[in-house]
Amino acid sequence: MTPPQLVIFDCDGVLVDSERISNGVLAQMLSAEGLPTTLAQARRHYQGLLLDEVLERAQQKLGRALPAGWLARYERVRAHAFRQQLAPVPGAAHAVARVRAAGAMVCVASQGKLAKTQLSLQLTGLDRLFEPSSLFSAHSVARGKPHPDLFLHAAAAMGAPPQRCVVVEDTPSGVHAGVAARMRVLGYAADSDAHALARAGAEVVRSLERLPALLGF
Fold first, then answer.
1. 3-class secondary-structure state, position 161
2. pLDDT confidence of 192, banded at 50, 70, 90?
3. Are residues 132 and 112 in the same domain?
């Protein structure tokens, strides 16, 4: 196995344990607007979407527009919850450090806004493992996941050909994006549906501790 030149990490659910927090806030706020939503439903219907897509889908289900400023309020409430609860995914720091020590490049490519990724990494101490220039957001490309644009943009910016890149994802939409970019994709399934990740084209991994070995490091 030829080790990759670049490992592209998703942020939420791969590096930071944020999905339950984000979707818990979303479920509470949608329920308060008259759209009863459980955590499981929020994760099933909205996880992995851009915020604008979350808003559009929620309004379709609700049958009316959410109040002006609702999305900005959600972001503020979520950020407050992050500051209280956010933690790194077990093994994430070790895996990234091992990849770097082996001489490969690392970057983060997230569906979320750049400011959210920066906050998440700072709160969990993972920011020390990534250069500021190695953080990428779907808001910087024409199409987010499941399209390949974000991963191709990250690879080009980091100077790595797609065939020498590996993507680490935890959602089927992210896996589809990596596959469409013609990159090897590892699906982190500790808190995700392993069968859905595999169907999307990922090699399933259940512990980040195993990641360096799977990459040939």
1. coil
2. confident
3. yes
Which residue range(s) make up the domain with 45? 19-85
- 172-180 and 149-158 are packed helices; what angle lies between their axes, rounded to 10 degrees? 60
* Domain boundary pick from 29, 54, 85: 85
Alpha helices per DSSP H over the chain: 19-32, 39-46, 51-62, 70-85, 92-101, 114-124, 149-158, 172-180, 194-200, 211-214
Amino acid at 158: M
Q: What is the pTM of this model?
A: 0.93
CATH number at residue 24: 1.10.150.240
What is the DSSP secondary structure assignment for residue 22, as one 8-state letter?
H
**Alpha-carbon span 143 to 180, nearest angstrom:** 13
150 and 93 both lie in a single domain = yes
Q: Is the pLDDT of residue 2 over 90?
A: no
The residues pairing with 134 across neighbouring beta strands, listed in sequence order, are none
Percent of the chain with pLDDT over 70: 100
Taking the C-alpha atoms of residue 154 and residue 31, their distance in angstroms, rounded to an integer, is: 36
